Amino acid sequence: MTTKIPKPPGVPLLGNITDVDPSNTWVSLQKLWEKYGEIFKITVLGQDIVFVGSTALCDELCDEKRFRKYVGGPIVEIRKAVHASLFTAFADEPVWGVHHRIEAPNLTPPAAAEHFHEIRDIAVELTAKWRDLGSNSTVSAIGELNRLDLETTTQCFFGRRLNGLTGREPPMIAAMDQSTGEAMKRPTRPKLVNWLLHQSRFERDCKTMRQYAAECLQYRKDNPTDRKDLLYAMMNGKDPETGKAMDEAQIIDEMVSVPIGSSTAPCVIASAIYYLLQNTECIVKAREEIDSVIGENDFTSDHLDKLPYCAGIVRETLRLSAAAPGFNIEPVPGTQGPVLLAGGKYQVPAKQTMIIVLHGVNRDPAVFEEPEAFKPERMMGAAFEKLPEGAKKWFGNGKRECIGRHYAWIWNVIVLVTLLKSVDFEMADADYKLKQDGWFNLRPVGFNIKVKPRGS
Q: How far is 258 from 249, CA to CA, in rounded Å?
């Protein structure tokens, strides 16, 4: 006999619309997970949505023989900016395979590692900026790291410097935040309200993002180079299966998608700084490792595999922060309902939308002792290898897993090591407690830090 999936009471006609704050959806879902546990559902505008927050159920839903990525809701809305790009294409759109086969060779682990020096050198520029600000200068952690992320992403993949670490913030950053925020909210409102009150701003932000991409593309045309980067592949590559190439509009689609996807990385490092300042013994251990392995020498790519504790910090931050907060799942086409979960404990309809809430999955007490504690050691060596696969879904799953995950990984490690090697941090507000918000990512809000050269 199946167990009924728990659900908040709701109100007539509106369902559970008051249980989820559209301006901070993921934090609302975190609170529901804390109340209802491994599985719950809500009804919004007549549609039932099931949420999963345990490692075992996450692992089950990641079985691609039974389930696949669901493209709906906010992902459909952001197609206004990126159309059928890698993260928004429907399962039956052939363009996904064409783009993936053209782009994937430039996003393998070896290809990502080729960007080591560009990532490191631009991160060093950020530390130099902080040094020049003067002793105990206060900065926004996420604000500074958003700039760093866009600067390195644009340089590594498109071969263009924005010079956006200083001065006016690049418009692309606000446009990404505002457009993805609007994409999250639009499914919760009547279409008429979206059109009357929010459409013009949404279109303006989408236009800003496409303008960023168009300018980077034009820059490459005006400044030919022998760089064999991602933009080169998109401009010159052909799909080995179909022989098709990407047209200019499709290139721009993917160029907009890249920084939207990479925007989780600065959320990880900003969160890591917070967790480290709450657990200063971890800073000591990380610096002992950095000083032992790198010392006074230049940080090189050869050092990356020799810094397991720093890698553990990144993984533990990915776990606790849930910087990429979840992903959508549905039963594969042709599934006969009802669909049984957890060995028949629960059942859902054959076309049920389900969302994996990584905040809950990553805190599953059946997997993690002291799940709220920050323990990099549990993300190292044999301890990490023993974790179930459902506890490692920070970049999504399977065929539709984030194509830029290898780049994101080395970006996070390189930036973390560069900052810890060169900079001392302090809470600007000693009483600050982590607060998160975000749309396609989760970031610390109101988190300001004092920065100064290490040991000064």
A: 15
Say if residues 421 and 278 touch (Cβ distance below 8 Å): no
Round to whole Å and give the CA distance between 290 and 286.
6
Distance of CA 48 to the CA centre of its chain: 26
The Cα–Cα gap between 384 and 308 comes to 11
pLDDT above 80 (res 157): yes
> What are the residues facing 328 on neighbouring strands?
355
Residue 456 has pLDDT above 80, yes or no: no
Task: For residues 323-341, give the mean pLDDT.
Answer: 95
Give the separation between CA 411 and CA 432, rounded to whole angstroms.
27
Give backbone dihedrals phi and psi of 15, rounded to 5 degrees, phi first: 65, -130
How many Å apart are CA 96 and CA 94, to the nearest integer? 5
Residue the block writes with tokens 């105990």:
136
How confident is the model at residue 32, as a pLDDT?
A: 95
Single-letter amino acid, residue 254:
E
**What element of type H or E holds 448?**
strand 448-453
Alpha-carbon span 177 to 417, nearest angstrom = 27
- pLDDT, one tens digit per residue, over 17-36 is 889 888 889 999 999 999 99
pLDDT, tens digit, 9 for 90 and up, residues 220-264:
999 999 999 999 999 999 999 999 999 999 999 999 999 999 999
Beta strand 67-69 with 47-52 is unpaired
Please list the residues that pair with 39 across neighbouring strands.
52
**In 191-279, which ranges are continuous DSSP H helix?**
191-193, 199-222, 230-236, 248-262, 264-278
Cα 115 → chain centroid? 19
Whole-model pTM: value is: 0.96
